[in-house]
C-alpha cells in the first residue's frame, strides 16, 4: 500500500473514533475538545505501531474504566439542607492506581470531570511515576462558606466516596476549590469511617500530618521550570522577562513565587472578577495575604498598593509580556487573546491550568513560533509531587524541602526533554503538544497491550 494511502486510512479511522466519542458522550464539550486535541496527533504513531490500532488502544483509552456519580446532602449554618452532586471518574489504571484531584466549583459537571480525567491519564504517564489517571469533584462552591459548612460538605462527600478509594486503588488530591483545609476534612472523615490511618489514600495533605513539602508549590513551580526549559533550548533565560500569570489561587501564587526567584518580573494576576496590573512587579506577600489568609478578592490589592490598577472584568492578556502562564481555568485564553499576546511580544506560554488555551489560541501561538507548553506536560509537577508524597507515605519517610524541589525540577526537565525529543522524532521539532501526547500515549498503550483485553 502506498504510505500516503495508508496515512489517509489512519486519519479516517481517527476521525471515526472522535465521532464515536462525541456520539456516546453528548453535551460534554470540554471532554470532546480534550479527546480531539490528543487523537488528532496520533496518526503517525498508529502508522509506526499498527498493533495499537489492531487492539483498539485509542478507543479503549477514550472510554473511562469507571464513572461514579452520587448525591451529596449537607446542612448549612442556617440549618437548611443543601444538595450537590459528586463525581469520580477513574479513567485509566494501566500504569498504577487512579490518581487525580478533586475540584469543588459551580461549573463542575460530568463533562468537566471526564475532560480532566482524560488529560490526567497522559499527564501522569509523562511524569514516569507509577500512577493512572482519574479526576473527581462536585458543583459545591467553598467560596464564601464558613469552615463549618465546608467541613460538613466534605464529610458528606467522603461518606459516599470512601468505599471506592485506597492507596492501591484510587488516590485523590486537591484541585480548584480543594486546598489543605478541604483535604484535612476529607481525610479526617475517611480515617473515621475506616478506622485506618492510611496516609497514602489522599495527597495534598499538610506536612504536619503526612503531607509532602513542595506539594503546595509544585504545580506552579513546575510550570515555571517547564517554561525555563523551553527558553533554554532557544538559547534564552527566564531572568529579566516580563511575565503575566492569570489566576490568584494556589497554582498562580507559586508560579509567581518561582518566577520572581528566577529573576523574572510578574506584572499582573487575576481572579474571576478582574485583573491587578502592577507595572513595578507584584507584591507577592500581599497577594498571599489576601488570597491565602483573608480569602478576599484580588481587587483589594489596589486598595493597598496605590500604584497598581484594578481592571474589572478585563482580560489579563491585553497587558504586554514576554512570558505568559495561564493558571486559572479551562479555555481562558482564546484566539483573540493569543493574537494580542503575540502582537505584544510574547515568546513563551506555559500552561499552569488544565486546557486553558483554546484550539484557536494554540494555532496562533504555533503559527507565530511561540514556545507553547501544554498543560499535560507543563503542569504535571503537581501530580508528580503527589506521587512523591505517596512514596514518602509508603516508606514512613519525610523529605526536606530542598530534596523535594530538586526531585521536582529533575522530573520537569525530563518531561521537557522527552517531549522535545519525541516531537523531533516524529518530524515536528518544538511541537510540545505532539511530543507530550505521543510520549504519554505510548507509555499507557504499551502497558495496556501487555495486560490483554481488559
Can you describe what's shown?
The protein is an alpha/beta fold and 454 residues long. The protein has three domains: 3-62; 66-197, 3-Layer(aba) Sandwich (Rossmann fold), CATH 3.40.50.10860; 216-378, Rossmann fold, CATH 3.40.50. It is built from 18 helices and twelve strands. It has helices at residues 3-24, 29-39, 43-48, 50-54, 57-61, 110-127, 147-161, 180-194, 215-232, 250-261, 284-293, 300-304, 335-343, 359-368, 375-378, 381-394, 401-425, 432-451, and strands at residues 66-75, 81-92, 98-104, 133-138, 170-173, 242-245, 265-270, 274-277, 309-312, 323-325, 348-350, 371-373. The chain has a seven-stranded mixed sheet with strand order 9-8-7-6-10-11-12, with helices on both faces. The protein has a five-stranded mixed sheet with strand order 1-2-4-3-5, sandwiched between helices. Helix 13 (335-343) links the parallel strand 10 (323-325) and strand 11. It starts with a helix and ends with a helix. 51% of the residues are buried. The mean pLDDT is 96.
Amino acid at each position: 500500500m502506498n504510505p500516503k494511502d495508508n496515512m489517509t486510512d489512519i486519519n479516517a479511522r481517527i476521525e471515526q473514533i472522535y465521532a464515536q466519542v462525541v456520539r456516546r458522550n453528548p453535551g460534554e464539550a470540554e471532554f470532546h475538545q480534550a479527546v480531539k486535541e490528543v487523537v488528532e496527533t496520533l496518526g503517525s504513531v498508529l502508522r509506526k505501531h499498527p498493533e495499537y490500532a489492531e487492539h483498539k488502544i485509542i478507543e479503549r483509552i477514550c472510554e473511562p474504566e469507571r464513572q461514579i456519580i452520587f448525591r451529596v446532602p449537607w446542612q448549612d449554618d442556617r440549618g437548611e439542607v443543601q444538595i450537590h452532586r459528586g463525581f469520580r471518574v477513574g479513567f485509566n489504571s494501566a500504569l498504577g492506581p487512579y490518581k487525580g484531584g478533586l475540584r469543588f466549583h459551580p461549573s463542575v459537571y460530568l463533562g468537566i470531570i471526564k475532560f480532566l480525567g482524560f488529560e490526567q491519564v497522559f499527564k501522569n504517564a509523562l511524569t514516569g511515576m507509577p500512577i493512572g489517571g482519574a479526576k473527581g469533584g462536585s458543583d459545591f462552591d467553598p467560596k464564601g462558606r464558613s469552615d463549618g459548612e465546608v467541613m460538613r460538605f466534605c464529610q458528606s462527600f467522603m461518606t459516599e466516596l470512601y468505599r471506592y478509594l485506597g492507596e492501591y486503588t484510587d488516590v485523590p488530591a486537591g484541585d480548584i476549590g480543594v486546598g489543605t483545609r478541604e483535604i484535612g476534612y476529607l481525610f479526617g472523615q475517611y480515617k473515621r469511617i475506616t478506622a485506618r490511618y492510611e496516609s497514602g489514600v489522599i495527597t495534598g495533605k499538610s506536612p504536619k500530618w503526612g503531607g509532602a513539602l513542595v506539594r503546595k508549590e509544585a504545580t506552579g513551580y513546575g510550570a515555571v521550570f517547564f517554561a525555563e526549559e523551553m527558553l533554554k533550548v532557544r538559547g534564552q533565560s527566564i531572568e529579566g522577562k516580563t511575565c503575566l500569570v492569570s489566576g490568584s489561587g494556589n497554582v498562580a501564587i507559586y508560579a509567581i513565587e518561582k518566577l520572581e526567584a528566577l529573576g523574572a518580573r510578574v506584572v499582573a494576576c487575576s481572579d474571576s472578577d478582574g485583573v491587578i496590573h502592577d507595572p513595578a512587579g507584584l507584591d507577592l506577600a500581599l497577594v498571599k495575604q489576601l488570597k491565602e489568609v483573608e480569602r478576599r478578592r484580588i481587587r483589594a490589592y489596589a486598595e493597598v498598593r496605590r500604584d497598581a490598577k484594578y481592571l474589572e472584568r478585563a482580560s489579563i492578556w491585553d497587558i504586554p509580556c514576554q512570558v505568559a502562564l495561564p493558571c486559572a481555568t479551562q479555555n481562558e485564553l482564546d484566539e483573540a487573546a493569543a493574537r494580542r499576546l503575540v502582537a505584544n511580544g510574547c515568546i513563551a506560554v506555559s500552561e499552569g491550568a488544565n486546557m486553558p488555551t483554546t484550539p484557536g489560541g494554540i494555532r496562533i501561538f504555533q503559527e507565530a513560533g511561540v514556545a507553547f507548553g501544554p498543560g499535560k506536560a507543563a503542569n504535571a509537577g503537581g501530580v508528580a509531587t503527589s506521587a512523591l508524597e505517596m512514596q514518602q507515605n509508603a516508606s514512613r519517610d519525610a523529605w526536606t524541602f530542598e530534596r523535594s524541589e530538586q526531585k521536582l525540577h529533575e522530573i520537569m526537565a525530563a518531561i521537557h526533554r522527552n517531549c522535545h525529543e519525541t516531537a523531533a522524532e516524529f518530524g515536528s521539532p518544538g511541537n510540545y503538544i505532539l511530543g507530550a501526547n505521543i510520549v504519554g500515549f505510548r507509555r499507557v498503550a504499551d502497558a495496556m497491550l501487555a495486560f490483554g483485553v481488559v
